[in-house]
Amino acid sequence: xxxCYSPATKWLKCSILRFLLLLPYVKSWNFTSVNLPEDTxxxxxxxxxxxxxLAIPRWQQNLNAELTLIEAPWPxxxxxQIGLSSTVLSxxxxxxxxxxxxxxxxxxxxxxxxxxxxGRLWVLDAPQDNDCPAKIILYDLRRNDQxxxxxxxxxxxxxxxxxxxxxxxxxxxxSRAYIGDPDDESIIVYSLGQRRWWxxxxxxxxxxxxxxxxxxxxxxxxxxxxxxxYPSQDLxxxxxxxxxxxxxxxxxxxxxxxxxxxxxxxxxxxxSSLGLFADYKGGLHYFIVTERASVRWDGxxxxxxxxxxxxxxxxxxxxxxxxxxxxxRNLWGLVNSRHPDGTKKHNLSKLGRSHNVSLPxxxxxxxxxxxFAL
Length: 374
Prior knowledge:
2 helices
């Protein structure tokens, strides 16, 4: 028991001592509360107010996981008082909807999530080990998590479907989302207003490298959609101005509908990467797998090393697989113990230790927004 006396001269020491004693009780999200190991791969995440949604793909060690879409309290650690750091997770929208063996209508393997300003959760479900097609499902977080709509992507390869980003600019035809990578140098456009989808085929010059789109980000300063993907070191962009005003190909084409768009090659990143996010200052964030570093590229400059800033490089952050912005526009990274597709070398620390170990926290603040900074 710690006794703190009343004299003002001892107040600071007592406060510090209380803080240190409480630190062991501050915990990260408790994955064991939903029968998952603590080192579970949480591939993507999204935020809505005080709620976080985690995509837990049924890949590799998660293959037999009971849950594939999880809700968690946000922030991960809200304060340092005993009993107030809620770490218990839960299934979303419910447990029965995640029974993959029961029916293809249930969630099979959630690989990406995003939210929009209207309180809708967009979920990309892309199983790899059965015959169920990929699908997108929308839930209304303002109305008791009711399902709004769903759409199947019949005939689309699910092998590399790993990213989904909702366009912050609502087009003439309603809200849209972009999905990658269908593994044919295209991206999927899903139009909520039209309740249909089509392929946007990425046209490149003969001297431009192969295009990957397992990571997508939409600029908040321009009309650019950024594309990249592991293991590529190339970064590409697509101008969305025309696409936002276009109705899309004829609806009668259904699953065969497609359009062409020209892709620009922006250059070579600092290395193979995971995660991609465009901030309000025109910067583009990504995590360099080999260096285990989160960097920010100044999008107003060319894609060279001198126009990058290393924002985070720590032993307790071995891998960031996704980024998300909170209501204060601060950027957070989703921390995992290893890179799911990386080699053994990629999953070792600079000291040669394996990173397949428990993590102190699963989210980390990467970038603090300052509206007065350039």
